[in-house]
Design a protein that fits this description.
Blueprint: E1 11-15, E2 27-33, E3 36-43, H1 51-55, H2 60-67, H3 75-89, H4 96-124, H5 129-149, E4 158-159, E5 162-163, H6 171-194, H7 197-203, H8 211-216, H9 222-225, H10 233-236, H11 257-281, H12 306-311, E6 325-332, E7 335-342, E8 351-355, H13 357-361, H14 365-369, H15 374-384, H16 391-433, H17 449-458, H18 470-489, H19 504-513, H20 515-526, H21 530-562
Length: 563
Amino acid sequence: MNVPATREDLMIVNMGPHHPSMHGVLRLIVTLDGEDVIDCEPILGYLHRGMEKIAENRTIIQYLPYVTRWDYLATMFTEAITVNAPEQLGNIQVPKRASYIRVIMLELSRIASHLLWLGPFMADIGAQTPFFYIFRERELVYDLFEAATGMRMMHNYFRIGGVAADLPYGWIDKCLDFCDYFLTGVSEYQKLITRNPIFLERVEGVGIIGVEEAINWGLSGPMLRASGIQWDLRKVDRYECYDEFDWEVQWQKEGDSLSRYLVRIGEMVESIKIIQQALEGIPGGPYENLEIRCFDRVRNPELNDFDYRFISKKPSPTFELSKQELYVRVEAPKGELGVFLIGDQNVFPWRWKIRPPGFINLQILPQLVKRMKLADIMTILEVQDINSFSRLEYLKEVYGMIWVLVPILTPVLGITIGVLAIVWLEREISAGIQQRIGPEYAGPLGILQALADGTKLLFKENLLPSRGDTRLFSIGPSIAVISILLSYLIIPFGSNLVLSDLNIGVFLWIAISSIAPIGLLMSGYGSNNKYSFLGGLRAAAQSISYEIPLTLCVLSISLRAIR
């Protein structure tokens, strides 16, 4: 009798970088004693875009389209910090209307980011329903973004001294309607999630962070405020025009995963309050400080300069960054997003250092998961809201395209495989008739021969007759193929892909399949060659004489089998 041996040593497992719950390419090396976590080592660096060095070799205007890739879920904040840095460096004033528009866009982006945090967080701990709810409201936010900026995700909307364009007509009313609707959605989330006993078991008392720990680890955003510290850069730094609105900093004192959830839910409600006040009190005036186009600008090239003589276009407006340094920060959805900028009296920054909030907040993860269960890792990691690089957005777009393409690709793939199989079978039968060894085989055991034949068939030179009717000659084969495709469409199938009642479908199939000989005759006639025309007649006669009766025999057998 074999007795299974019990292993007493520790187990080291990998979570990521392609784990379904890893938002982005984050790898965790977890040391386990059964289900208990002994140690956890996060490893980064699987996705490095070189954004800082790109910034140091571009002007600010040229760099703006890049910054939305820092965090696909909070794109407005990356644009805001990019323009705020040179604005403070050059003491550039932003018009009041532009500042209000910026606040509206920032808070809408905060809501969108929190929504895409909430759905995957609930899905990873076992609740699937909120995952579908959050996309309902998030699409409405993206509709507003698309109406104002022209893009749903990569907006490129902020500019030095303002924004790229004013709000379109009717946009404010649509945004106010969204605010009223979203408040009912938040209450729906709270009824569904907040007092759910299973949810409370998973998050309450899990991943507790004390006040001193939060400060010593340099945490920010909801991670910091959930530990009892009322620190929000919108109140502290008073950037843009946040001090003109009535809103409260959301905070909790327990420091666990439930507190971080409650902070983010409360922040979405406060964002709606800010947006409503901004929409109702938005002033008139310009949306961009046009005077800054004359400040510290590189001189315009003359008509005989290189740019006009050889490039034939004006370069983008550039601004020289004064020789000084500063650190700029904003309150992003995940925490403090900052940029350390050093100017060198040049159009390019001498140094551009990014302070990402998710990277800093991730430092405390090994300490939080020690002595916890394996299942608690995803709860703690999700509540931290690590920068996801829009994995879910990407999957959503990909899955959406897949579901659109499946009905199209399925018949195409089926026809392609059928053609390859028929080509291979035809070669084998021809070789047998001629009493010779079959065709040369490609690949092991000839499994790639059909693919080679099909590739050769696709890339064969298209020979068109010089004296023939090119259009008629080209349309003929298409008509022949289309008739075959249409004949597949009218054959009904049951739920188990078994031929069902054909009746009238048989006659319809005969009518459609009779189109194929017409295409063959068109090709032969369009070639303006009697031999080609005779070949077309022969192919049409073969189709009428053999293929159609053969198909009728198959259909009759199928009908007999159904009965």
